[in-house]
């Protein structure tokens, strides 16, 4: 029999064989099975530029702080419409050439936000470029590193039509006669980030709910009588959806994103323009970046809550609007579309 | 204590998932209490044992001498008593002439009994520690090899933690620099890989050389292979770090950031070391294979397989990569660092105490359960991820199973130390061992708690993970490696570092680690709660800021302690006329 105490051959062989068997069962076989998936019908393969962006994403070590997995629990709902599934990684997690393996996109730390759905949440290219050049230019409290080597300072006279100029504020870039221009690498990286959108999945599994929500719902309908308004928290929604560009202070960023504090559109007695801009997006003013459409991302209640927050904060003082007004304008907008 | 653990576990399992009162949920409180509790208990045990032991020894001595004295008096005759009294009278009248200590002859120490002459024998601040008086008979060649392995390890420790310290400061001052080679994303893997493959691995292999040859009572099979492995591993860390800083990264998976040609050098180094150690054990002059060698040989064998599986491309697309990543990063810690370090402890701890290990069978149990349980729990890094539910469940269940090897191991070490607590205040090595062993229990149990689904709600993705990894890789591995180095190098080189500097090293590292751990655990928990409450993400960044400052403070202490350690190491290995003469006395063993 095996005498491990005296037979080194038996000892080492058993230990190694045991480990190989366990590893096969727990790692190799499940890993092989996990490769056996198909993409969702709506999922698009990465374009060449997006793939180059993914490579920059890996080589700069973005995965150290950003996850790309929406877990199937309620608290992760803010990062996606549904929990992530294996198919979601069909195109992105492929071996990157002979030297490098498939990228570890799921991540293990969320020092920065999850990026599964960043393409939907933050679609504007202007915002991404400023943010990459110096994150603190758009998010004051951010601890993300700046990536100035993805940009170049170009003489104003040499800037051509093809160059993408980044509207960085004076306190972050102040060289006379020069402007910050995005390099190909920065544009590819942004293209990759914009491509990060959860594909539609009609029969998606739902999140494991937390008990708290039910209790709260009971509380608000039970002891405290009928609810005054069942709108979600507007300030919270504003912080998650709008503050990255328009800032928590509502002041916007000069040259990039317009202020909401004191804005005539926000404070207008008739909220139609404001609602329309949120639903349809806005690109009428060349001095500011493009405002994307939020019709798919926010429902009428959420839009109402955000608008009421905007109309009552930072010195703004316009009367609150109702959900019905938003619903009416959404129908109008839908009917206008061909 | 085991009962307290079980109780916490029971409560933890009974807990339902709610977001209310997270801070009071038993699993989290249990873990935090466990950490403080065990440490406090450990300290109390040390003090109480020390006190009780001293008192018992004292009392026993007193009692027996009183009894003997009484007996003697009774048995004496009259003339004897007179004789004694007259002697006593003369003694009381005796006066010093003032020239007793002088003399005409030159002082000489013919037997070489005096080791050190001291002008001020009473140091008011520090307890005098016992000196290492043993010069082990070790082949010159082996001593040189070990010193070089350890020297390189010390270099990588200082380098790796300089980077770590710099990274910690970047959380406080994100604009510290804007050089691509020094950006956070590129430097983070440099820190982790350097301390893993540079510091930990080289130190373990260097210390392993001594264990393998000594417990087999034979010369090392091949010095040449060991030197070759030394070169390969160092080259791998050097090239790997250059690659990472220039943006060449295997894919971002933790501890797999080196691209395969670089990691291949490391794997070759491991294969050479494994063959060399195996051959040495195979030609041993003792029939039994000492338990340390079980762990060391297995650690090398397992890690070779692990690195092959980790880098093989055929099952790593899509989420296959994620399965392998969980398996690889956990086994890197468990099968390599933990297994090897346990092997070292099974030799160096008893040898420091000059007594055998408490239980050989517990060691064997720990060995096989280590293999069984540790291998299966990698996926607990991906709880609630899109990986199969069964894989997550297996990982969580076997994480609980980890209590078996952990309790077996730490009990074994503590029972070996039992009865020798008084040595702790007399040794500069044992405090390092004690901290390492206590953290082995605390860190590993805490890790099992962290694998629960419900603790994953609040802790996963937060800075709590960072606290856990430092508690284990630093609290367990690094402290035990320091203990082993302070045990063996003075014996090999015949030179000891000054006690005050070893003390400074110990306390700065210990206090620094505590500040680091507690700030990251507290901050990480608050961060998780903030996410659960659905606050805007940026608030969790803002709330972490003060904890990041405390982490940087703790990190600075740890870093300073490494500079002191490096200096101590230099003092132990530097060449001087004295050490040369000691070396000349050494004869080649076997």
Structural features, described:
The complex is a heterodimer of chains A (338) and B (590). Chain A folds into 2 domains: 48-195, Cytochrome c-like domain (Cytochrome Bc1 Complex, Chain D, domain 2), CATH 1.10.760; 231-336, Cytochrome Bc1 Complex, Chain D, domain 2. Chain A is built from 12 helices and 3 strands. Chain A has helices at 8-34, 48-59, 118-121, 125-133, 184-195, 211-221, 234-241, 243-246, 264-267, 272-280, 300-310, 323-336; strands spanning 151-155, 165-166, 178-182. Mean pLDDT of chain A is 86; it is low at 213-228. In chain B, helix 5 packs antiparallel against helix 6 (223-245) and helix 5 packs across helix 16. By secondary structure, chain B is mainly α. Chain B has helices at 2-14, 26-75, 78-93, 140-172, 184-216, 223-245, 260-282, 291-311, 320-353, 360-375, 389-401, 403-417, 421-424, 430-450, 453-459, 464-493, 499-532, 537-573, 577-585. Chain B has one domain (2-7, 26-55, 139-537, 550-585): Cytochrome c oxidase-like, subunit I domain (Cytochrome C Oxidase, Chain A, Up-down Bundle). The chains are: A mainly alpha (338), B mainly alpha (590). At the A-B interface, helix 1, helix 6 and helix 7 of A face helix 5, helix 7, helix 8, helix 9 and helix 10 of B.
CATH second-level architecture of chain B: Up-down Bundle
Average pLDDT metric of chain A: 86
- The CATH topology of the largest domain in chain A turns out to be Cytochrome Bc1 Complex, Chain D, domain 2
Mean pLDDT of chain B: 87
**Relevant CATH superfamily of chain B:** Cytochrome c oxidase-like, subunit I domain
CATH superfamily of the largest domain in chain A: Cytochrome c-like domain
CATH class of the largest domain in chain A: Mainly Alpha
CATH class term of chain B: Mainly Alpha
Note the overall shape of chain B: globular
**Sheet having the most strands of chain B:** none
The assigned structural class of chain A equals mainly alpha
Beta-strand proportion of chain A:
under 5%
How far apart are the first and last residues' alpha carbons of chain A, in Å? Answer: 82 Å
* Total of helices of chain A: 12
Radius of gyration of chain A: 25 Å
Number of domains of chain A: 2
What is the percentage of strand-forming residues of chain B?
under 5%
Pair of chains with the largest interface and how many residues each contributes: A-B, 86 and 96 residues
């Amino acid at each position: 029999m095996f005498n491990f105490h005296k037979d080194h051959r038996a000892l080492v062989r058993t230990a190694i064989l045991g480990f190989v068997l366990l590893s096969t069962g727990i790692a190799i076989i499940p890993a092989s099975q996990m490769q056996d998936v198909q993409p969702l019908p709506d999922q698009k393969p990465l374009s060449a530029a997006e793939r180059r962006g993914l490579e920059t994403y890996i080589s700069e070590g973005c995965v150290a702080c950003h996850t790309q997995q929406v877990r199937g629990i309620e608290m992760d709902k803010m990062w996606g419409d549904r929990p992530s599934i294996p198919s979601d990684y069909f195109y992105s997690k492929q071996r990157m050439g002979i030297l490098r393996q498939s990228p570890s996109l799921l991540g293990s730390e969320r020092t920065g936000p999850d990026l599964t759905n960043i393409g939907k949440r933050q679609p504007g290219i202007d915002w991404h470029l400023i943010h990459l050049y110096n994150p603190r230019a758009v998010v004051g409290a951010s601890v993300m590193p700046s990536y100035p080597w993805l940009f170049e300072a170009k003489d104003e006279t040499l800037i051509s039509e093809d160059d993408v100029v980044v509207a960085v504020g004076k306190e972050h870039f102040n060289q006379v006669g020069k402007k910050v221009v995005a390099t190909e690498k920065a544009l590819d990286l942004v293209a990759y980030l914009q491509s990060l959108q959860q594909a539609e999945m009609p029969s998606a599994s739902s999140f494991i709910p937390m008990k708290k929500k039910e209790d709260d719902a009971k509380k608000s309908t039970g002891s405290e009588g009928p609810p005054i308004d069942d709108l979600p928290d507007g300030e919270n929604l504003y912080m998650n959806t709008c503050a990255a560009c328009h800032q928590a202070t509502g002041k916007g960023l000069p040259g990039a994103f317009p202020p909401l504090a004191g804005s005539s559109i926000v404070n207008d007695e008739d909220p139609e323009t404001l609602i329309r801009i949120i639903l349809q997006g806005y690109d009428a003013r060349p001095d500011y970046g493009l405002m994307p459409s939020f019709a798919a991302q926010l429902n009428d209640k959420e839009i109402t809550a955000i608008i009421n927050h905007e109309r009552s904060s930072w010195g703004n003082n316009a009367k609150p609007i109702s959900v019905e007004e938003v619903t009416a304008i959404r129908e109008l907008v839908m009917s206008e579309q061909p | 204590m085991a009962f307290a653990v079980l109780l916490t576990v029971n409560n933890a399992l009974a807990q339902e998932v709610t977001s209310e009162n997270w801070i009071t949920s038993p699993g989290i409180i249990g873990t935090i209490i466990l950490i403080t509790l065990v440490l406090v208990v450990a300290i109390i045990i040390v003090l109480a044992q020390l006190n009780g032991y001293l008192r018992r020894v004292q009392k026993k001595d007193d009692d027996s001498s009183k009894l003997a004295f009484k007996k003697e008096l009774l048995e004496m005759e009259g003339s004897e008593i007179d004789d004694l009294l007259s002697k006593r009278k003369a003694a009381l009248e005796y006066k010093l002439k003032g020239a007793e200590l002088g003399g005409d002859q030159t002082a000489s120490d013919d037997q070489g009994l005096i080791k050190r002459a001291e002008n001020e024998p009473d140091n008011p601040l520090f307890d005098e520690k016992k000196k290492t008086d043993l010069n082990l008979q070790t082949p010159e060649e082996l001593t040189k090899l070990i010193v070089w392995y350890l020297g390189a390890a010390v270099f990588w420790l200082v380098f790796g933690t300089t980077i770590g310290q710099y990274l910690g400061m970047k959380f406080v001052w994100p604009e510290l620099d804007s050089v691509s080679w020094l950006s956070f994303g590129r430097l983070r893997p440099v820190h982790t890989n350097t301390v893993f493959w540079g510091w930990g691995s080289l130190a373990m292999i260097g210390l392993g050389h001594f264990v393998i040859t000594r417990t087999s009572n034979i010369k090392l099979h091949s010095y040449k292979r060991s030197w070759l492995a030394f070169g390969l591993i160092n080259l791998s860390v050097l090239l790997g770090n250059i690659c990472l800083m220039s943006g060449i990264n295997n894919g971002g998976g933790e501890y797999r950031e080196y691209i395969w040609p670089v990691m291949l050098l490391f794997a070759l180094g491991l294969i050479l070391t494994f063959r060399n150690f195996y051959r040495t054990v195979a030609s041993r002059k003792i029939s039994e294979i000492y338990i340390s060698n079980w762990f060391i040989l297995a650690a090398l064998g397992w890690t070779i397989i692990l690195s092959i599986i980790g880098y093989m491309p055929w099952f790593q697309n899509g989420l296959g990569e994620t399965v392998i990543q969980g398996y690889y990063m956990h086994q890197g810690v468990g099968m390599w660092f933990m297994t090897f370090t346990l092997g070292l402890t099974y030799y160096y701890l008893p040898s420091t105490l000059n007594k055998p290990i408490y239980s050989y069978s517990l060691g064997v149990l720990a060995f096989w359960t280590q293999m069984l349980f540790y291998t299966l729990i990698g996926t607990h890094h991906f709880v609630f991820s899109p990986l199969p539910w069964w894989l997550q469940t297996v990982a969580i269940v076997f994480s609980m199973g980890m209590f078996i090897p952990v309790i077996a191991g730490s009990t074994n070490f503590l029972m070996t130390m039992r009865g020798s607590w008084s040595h702790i205040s007399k040794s500069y090595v044992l405090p390092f061992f004690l901290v390492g062993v206590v953290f082995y229990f605390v860190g590993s149990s805490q890790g099992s708690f962290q694998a629960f689904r419900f603790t994953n709600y609040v802790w996963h993705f937060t800075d709590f993970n960072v606290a856990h990894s430092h508690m284990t890789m630093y609290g367990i591995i690094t402290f035990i490696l320091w203990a082993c180095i302070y045990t063996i190098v003075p014996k090999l080189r015949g030179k000891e570092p000054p006690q005050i500097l070893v003390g400074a090293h110990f306390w700065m590292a210990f206090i620094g680690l505590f500040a680091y751990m507690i700030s990251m655990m507290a901050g990480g928990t608050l961060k998780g709660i903030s996410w659960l409450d659905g606050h805007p993400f940026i608030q969790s960044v803002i709330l972490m800021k003060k904890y990041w400052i405390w982490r940087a403070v703790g990190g600075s202490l740890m870093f300073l302690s490494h500079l002191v350690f490096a200096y101590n190491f230099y003092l132990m290995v530097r060449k001087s006329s004295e050490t040369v003469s000691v070396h000349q006395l050494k004869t080649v063993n076997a």
